[in-house]
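Sorry to interrupt, but I need a hand with the structure work. Could you write out one complete protein record for me, on any chain you like? Could you add the entry underneath, on a fresh line?
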Amino acid sequence: MSLAMPLSMPALRHRLPLLLALGLSLALSFVLVAVRVLLTQQLTFVFLLWNLFLAAIPFALSAAIHLAAHRPKARLLLPVGAVWLLFFPNAPYLVTDLFHLEPRPGVPYWYDLALIMSCAWNGLMLAYSSLMDMHTLVRQRLGFVAGWGFATVALGLSAFGVYLGRYLRFNSWDILSNPFTLFYDIVQRFLHPFHNWQTWGVTVVFWAFLLIGYATVRLLGRVETAIEQEG
């Protein structure tokens, strides 16, 4: 899918309110970080902007597929889907940046709470918006059960990816730059699950959190649609 591929204008009009809302929300996070830097003359939370950029990559990929005037063929969707899945954990990973919340001089505690929560919220919204796009794509091609199966597995793999990033400090680039260490650490956790109980505790709990949240967001959309139709 090249950058020159024409856009579907009806799809763009349909998606424009979401893009504007996400843009405003991301702008708020940027402003909060920028104001903190000006107040403290420190770069304490600037790394959150990089995390947001990584979180936006899967959203950009899935949105590009849906905004294309012509749906890409399966031979293109498979590699795009693989790249999407590789970067997808970066979006919900932002929730774990709450680990960095602690009282610091220069700004009120509540300000840092609002700043980190803003970034965490954007991470979740980028994740869910992107997953909805991919979920729809799979459902249209393979059916309802396959669509939900895909979403469930993607969130499970994402939860495991969040563990790898937060506790083992791997990132999406390590699959290219450090593949052997990454593969070894993953295999060890499957071969010795009881010696790595934290791995599976974090993965299962975060998986449940993400899946319930995703289902709730989808149901809210359906409720709103039903109310509008009744009105």
User: Anything to note?
Assistant: The chain has a mean pLDDT of 91. Residues 53 and 90 are 9 Å apart (CA to CA).
